[in-house]
Amino acid sequence: xxxxxxxxxxxxxxxxxxxxxxxxxxxxxxxxxxxxxxxxxxxxxxxxxxxxxxxxxxxxxxxxxxxxxxxxxxxxxxxxxxxxxxxxxxxxxxxxxxxxxxxxxxxxxxxxxxxxxxxxxxxxxxxxxxxxxxxxxxxxxxxxxxxxxxxxxxxxxxxxxxxxxxxxxxxxxxxxxxxxxxxxxxxxxxxxxxxxxxxxxxxxxxxxxxxxxxxxxxxxxxxxxxxxxxxxxxxxxxxxxxxxxxxxxxxxxxxxxxxxxxxxxxxxxxxxx
Length: 273
Description:
By secondary structure, this protein is an alpha/beta fold. Helices cover 34% and strands 18% of the residues. It has helices at residues 29-46, 72-86, 97-104, 120-127, 146-154, 181-186, 216-226, 255-271; strands at 18-22, 50-53, 90-93, 109-112, 132-136, 161-165, 168-169, 175-176, 191-194, 200-201, 210-211, 230-236, 250-251. The strands form three sheets. The protein has an eight-stranded parallel barrel with strand order 1-2-3-4-5-6-9-12, surrounded by six helices. A two-stranded antiparallel ribbon has the order 7-8. It has a two-stranded antiparallel ribbon with strand order 10-11. Helix 4 (120-127) packs across helix 5. The radius of gyration is 17 Å and the shape is globular.
């Protein structure tokens, strides 16, 4: 995959990792623009190629009363406004075949959720839009099996594909990252490490997913040391009020220091040859 083909992606020649980051879900225009402005400021300062992330709807919820979105078209229009306002590309996840064509009108990267990455029709529908496709590795899948998901995209005539590792189920209520899988999957496509989702603690009795945000920098540093091409991190100016995945989000106030440390580490890793 050629990063330079992602529309409006800045700093693609900086030799830095690239970043997919934003809120878990689009909760409204003001919050999306506020978060995007802060991340754009930081990534421009550090010369990190940046893609704004926000889900236009949340289909995978533990409870029927969980937040699912503000309306598909309304949220997608907000994603477009973020892109136009800050001149950055955007990514959102899709859940059914009809989402692919609809979302492709508004965003630059279509993301296949981990629990749907084996759904052939969905993957092919995303690929056939011609957009970059981000395949999240299933929590139940081996790194080696992601080769077949990538092949579904390329066999559909789309070479613009990447893989995101978001951890593997460990028992019923925890996730772990097997860093041995990073070089394995890099043989198939560029690899992104989803730092915040890797720290989820799903299947809690409350029906609300838990998390370990205190481990975000630990996992992110390990990913950079292992040679990931990009990082994925959800962030919010107040995770305690986020309508989705607040328990494992990075507080926006901590983003600049974390990314600065990771850029420094990346330089060391690059220097090792």
